[in-house]
Design goal:
The chain folds into 2 domains: about 1-50; about 65-285, MetI-like fold. The protein is built from 13 helices and no strands. The chain has helices at about 1-40, 45-50, 65-70, 75-105, 115-120, 130-140, 150-170, 175-185, 190-200, 200-220, 220-225, 235-240, 250-285.
């Protein structure tokens, strides 16, 4: 018995060590380009032409950060604010609507429920490029082209199918007994929803917040089609605009890229406590 236990423990340790090696290797592959961009943002171009890992000459400077922040044609200070104006409502509006819809699918039985849910799931398969021309024409016809409201509506609409699927699976594994007890005590469905269900759903909501925020923040395609005024352009549009038509200043562009990364990374670290727990629970139907 003792030998078998030691053998099993050895196998578990080998598996754990192998898992850590693979995870650290993947992390290293991901972080090396980030380090390269960070080095390019604080070093003159001539110092990194032979590779950012070459430190024979090392004269760090914050010039790139100052210039990208106050760029004459595409200042990142304004672009970051514009991105926040679009990203914050585009994150919370679909989550609120998806939570209501997902709870209905998980708890109530109504005609065509399964067919409607299947339709919502299938909507996830529609690529952005397939519907961008109808969206573009619709936004022009209703006066929402080159308007943040139109962009927020598009982001919200594209987020709803996968968020409803995600939250419906999460709601399905929550214990029904607590809700039934509250119902017997006279609580309404909406009161049960926001007093009992939503607090229990915090890990899933935090995961959705992080995923949706990063997706909208990093979006370039919809922003490029629906926003054209220089004063309204988002951070993902400002970075290419800083390249210019002649020789680009890679120190400025790299510094801008680092600044654009900071906010989604901060969001992830703030919500990482719930992130993995919410993803695992939302991916498995009880």
């Amino acid at each position: 018995m003792l030998r078998e236990s030691f053998a099993k423990l050895r196998k578990v340790r080998k598996f754990t060590i192998l898992t850590h090696i693979i995870a650290w290797s993947i992390s290293l592959v991901w972080i090396i380009p980030f380090i390269g961009v960070a080095m390019a943002s604080i070093r003159p171009l001539n110092e990194i032409l032979d590779g950012w890992w070459n430190f024979e000459a090392f004269n760090p400077t914050l010039r790139g950060y100052f210039e990208t922040w106050t760029h004459p044609t595409a200042p990142l200070s304004r672009a970051l604010l514009n991105s926040l104006i679009v990203t914050i409502p585009s994150t919370f509006i679909p989550i609120f609507i998806a939570a209501l819809g997902a709870y209905s699918f998980a708890r109530f039985d109504f005609p065509t429920r399964d067919l409607l849910f299947l339709t919502i799931v299938l909507l996830q398969t529609i690529p952005q490029q397939m519907v961008i021309i109808p969206i573009f024409n619709t936004m022009i016809s209703i006066g929402l082209w080159n308007n943040y409201i139109g962009l927020i509506l598009v982001h919200s609409a594209f987020a709803l199918p996968w968020q409803i699927l995600f939250l419906r699976n999460f709601f399905s594994i929550l214990p029904v007994e607590v809700e039934e007890a509250a119902r017997i005590d006279g609580a309404s469905y909406f009161k049960i929803f926001y007093k009992i269900v939503l607090p229990l759903t915090m890990p899933a909501l935090a995961s959705l917040t992080a995923l949706q925020f990063v997706w909208v923040w990093n979006d370039f395609f919809f922003a490029a089609v629906l926003i054209s005024s220089p004063d309204l352009k988002l951070a993902t549009q400002a970075i290419p605009a800083q390249l210019g038509r002649r020789q680009p200043d890679w120190t400025v562009v790299s510094a801008g890229s680092i600044l654009v990364m900071v906010i989604p990374i901060a969001i992830y670290f703030a919500l990482q406590r719930y992130y993995v727990r919410g993803l695992v629970a939302g991916a498995v139907k009880g």
